[in-house]
Amino acid sequence: MKLNINNTIHEVVVNPATPLLWVIREQLGLNGTKFGCGIGQCGACTVHLEGTPIRSCLTPVQTVEGKAITTIEGIATGTTKLHAVQIAWIEEQIPQCGYCQSGQIMSAHALLTNNLSPTDKDIDEAMSGNICRCGTYPRVRKGIKRAAEILEASLSKKDTDHGEME
Amino acid sequence: MGKWSRRAFITTGVLTGGALVLGVAIRPGNRAKKVKDLIAGDDETVLNIWLKIDKDNIVTVVVPHAEMGQGVHTTLPMMLADEMDADWTKVRILEAPGNKEYANYSMAKGFILGPRDIPSILMGTVDGFFLTATKHLNIQVTGGSGSVRFTGMFAMRVAGAAARAVLLQAASEQWEIPKEELVVKNSTISHLASDRRALFSDFAAKAANLSQPAKPRLKSSEEFTLMGTSPQRFDIPSKVDGTANFGIDVVLPNMKYAAIKASPVFGVKVKPLANEAIKDMPGVHKVVNLEGAVAVIADGYWLAKNAIDSLPITFETSANDAVEQSDIYDRYLRDMDTAIAEGNEEKDVKKGNIAAVFKEATNVVEAEYRVPYLAHATMEPMNCTALVKENSCEIWVGSQNPLGFANSVAEALDIDRKEVLVHNQFLGGGFGRRSVPDVAVQAALIAKKVDYPVKLIWSREEDIRQDHYREANVSRFKAALDSKGMIAAWNNQFVFKNEPEEAPHIPYGIDNQFIHYTNSETHVPWGYWRSVDSSMHAFFTESFMDELAFKANKDPYQFRREHLTNAPRYLKVLDMAAEKSNWGEALPANWGRGISLHQSFGTIVAQVTEIELVEDKLRVHRVVCAADPGFAFHPDGFKAQMESGIIFGLTAALYGEITIENGAVKQSNFHDYQMLRMDESPKIETFIITSDNFPGGAGEPSTPGIAPALTNAIFNASGIRIRELPVKNHELKADSKILG
Question: N or C end of chain B: which has fewer CB within 10 A?
Answer without folding.
Answer: N
